[in-house]
Amino acid sequence: MRQFSFILIILLSIFLFGCTSTTPAKNIKLEKDLYKGTSGVLMDIYQDKIPSEVYEGETFDIVVKVDNKGPYKVDNADLLISLDKGFMSFRSGGYIKSGALTLEGKTVFNEFDDFRIVSESVTSGQIDPLKESQNTLMLTTLCYDYKGIAVGDVCVDTDPYNTGTMKKICEVTPLSLSDGQGGPLSISDIEVRMLIDQPGGQTYIRPQLKIHFLHQGTGTIMKAGNTNIACSGKPFPNGIQSRAAIIDLKLSQYGLSDFECFPNEIILIGNEDTITCTLKSGRINKNRGTFKSPLTITYAYGYVSSLSKEIKIKKLL
Amino acid sequence: MAGVINNKSDFFYLLAFLLAIGLWFVDTPWISGFDGVDFKGWQSVSLTKFLISVATLAAIIILFLLLKNLGKFEINKIAVQLIFAIQIAAYLLVGGMKNTAAILHILIPGLIVFFVEQPDKFSDDNFLKPLNLLLFIDFILLPLIDFVSVSGWFGSGSVLLRGIRYYAYPYLIYTVASGATRAENSWLKIIFSLILLFFCTAMIVSVSGANLVVLNKIGTANINDFTKATNVFKDAAEFWMIFQLNIISGGQKFAAMFDPNTYNTNYEGTQEETEDPQGVFLKKYDLGDLKYYEGNQVYVWAILEAKTLENRLDIEVRCTAKADDSTEEEPIPPIEGVLDDKTKAKVMKIPVYSGVTTNVICIFDSLKAGEYEINITADFDFGADLPKRIFLMHKDRVMSDRLYLAQQGTDPTPENILIKNNINEIAEDESSTGPVLLQISSDPLIWEIPYSGNPFFGVKVENNWDAGTKVKQIKDIYLKVPEPMVVVGCTQFDPVKVGGSDPQAENGYNTYRIDTPSLIDVEEAIAVGCPLSVNANSLDSEPVTRRFIKAHVDYSYNLEVKIPIEVEKLATI
Predict the structure, then answer these.
(1) Stretch (H or E) spanning A102
(2) Which of B 463-482 lie inside 8 A of A, CB atoms?
């Protein structure tokens, strides 16, 4: 029996301690941690794959990589590659190619940057009989809809002038979001103020968010839903360029419809714009007490970026 | 109520209209320094127009306050004349009125005012109201809208500018309808009715087109039957706008006939020096001997180098000895030298397919004692090709890009628009070839489509070698413009469109030949300027369309080197 008890103790010891890790537990990555950076969807022409000089009639490949560095899915990207008509053509014919792209966004389970590599065979044409060489341009344009999600904690102070005796659990501080939200348009910081409103004798608190937007990319911001226009020769209808919109805002149990935002559209001037959103009156009673709540702001925009590459066609002498 | 206007007042109206029409034709030269591309210039002109409008408005208000006892029709007349006077002064002083289209809006009421046979027409509100309204819109409201939209105030932008295209229709219709109902002559009634029908159709088409443009911003539209049907209206609207622009450009073209700068043929293109020029070169020429004596063979030699790429080059070499004592009064004909001692040929023909280096030996069997100048000449036919890249964009797109760049604090020049589109390296065309420098220039860096007027295609053919050489003859100049562009005429020369059988005809290009047999012995340069007709079909389905315009010139060239020699008498013993 003693022998059986000894074996049991040994087995229990293995069972109890065998599963215990000797290293500290790793932090679990939250979804909000993905919403960082200012890259968005990047386009790159593989310079080393494309010769700077080719001879007449030579066939070579042009390779363009489109890489979604951000966390948001892109399902309507339009990639346009154009060559100088008459001097270069795609092997399959024509001098303009466009194609739709879909790129997955990052998730907590998949932090891999989704990408597509577009490769096209190009044939250089004949240059003029008495010319030794001819410089040509290849131009790539990428148009896509993107969004940004800014996440932070906001202290809703129901006694901004400290008239009460209750100890507050938090203080109103501005939110700094300088790491970006994963795309070229980002919310750089949010100023928070608490306004007091007293309709009908009741005292309500109206949190006011002054949201600063900053464009940090090299492309053009446009209103979402216009990729077909941006990647075409069509004129831009008025009010598309430099425009974006807040499509969702959550603070505590309140949504975008509970806020009054002015102006109602983001119009970048000098790469910056500010929108002020104030919670409508009659939502947060002063008696509720100071509390801290997560804030989530989602905004949508379209983006156009382009790159060019010069290729010299030389006469085969 | 004021009575019938006397003949003197009629004359004032007529004079004002005639002055306005005349100034419209000379509008372009007055606005020198503003080419419609420079955004800051645009803003500056808008500001000028704005200030003039404010001054006009203030003057009218003061006038009404001072002369309110005169009666409304008299004041009305004076106000209209005041508007004209201030605007005409602005034209003359600062070139402040750029709205050439405004004259169309004045012409129609002008027709009614002067041709409707109604004795008391100037006492009739129905006549004066549309006229005054049009003048107010054209000369005061339009500059105000223009200034606000260009300044980007109140979030305004291209929508206001686009809207300007449509504002005039209701007033034009109102005015013409007044004319149609009041004209006593039945022919005038028919003419006004036709004009009315035309404007009504144009307004419906244009406004429906404008609405579609606005609808587009909502998002991607599915191509369904409704969209297809509305696109027909949109296309028709675009056609109407181009038609309007052509009316305006027609007037500008007429005005340009009186402006020498518009058809300036002195085009300056860019061309880099080539490292490996083609053509023919005579090098290292020298005397064959240290001293020449009478009765002995005289020979001089040179090294001829010739290079060509694809086209065969045929060179003819000759040499002559010209006595120094030959004068104009007593000319001594030059003596032809022999270039081949065996065949005694006086012309050496050298075909060149790629590159050749050869000796040229010029022999004179018997030269008398004296001083001579030996000329070795090489004649050859050659050509030069040069393409120039042009950028085309939809006008409204350029405008929105400019506003975008201006909002970003960037100077919205065409170069910056291209940089925004990441065309960072704008390749300069390299030198084509040899002794003739071919240069192409054109109007602005970005051609805005639909183009207001006609862009210019300028070609300059310049003698690039200066050491005693000349272009013997320019045989022809070819202009190649990408389809569907067409050349609509050239200064001094008549271009002829060539078909596929011409060696210079090229797929995708409309090719024009200018025969220039009269252009002989060109010492320096000649230039040709040709306006092009460009429409929206030239645009590709990408933000910036790139095309090449090309020029080719065929010419005969004469290369010459001169070597002085002295032939001495043999000393006698």
Answers:
(1) strand A96-103
(2) 482
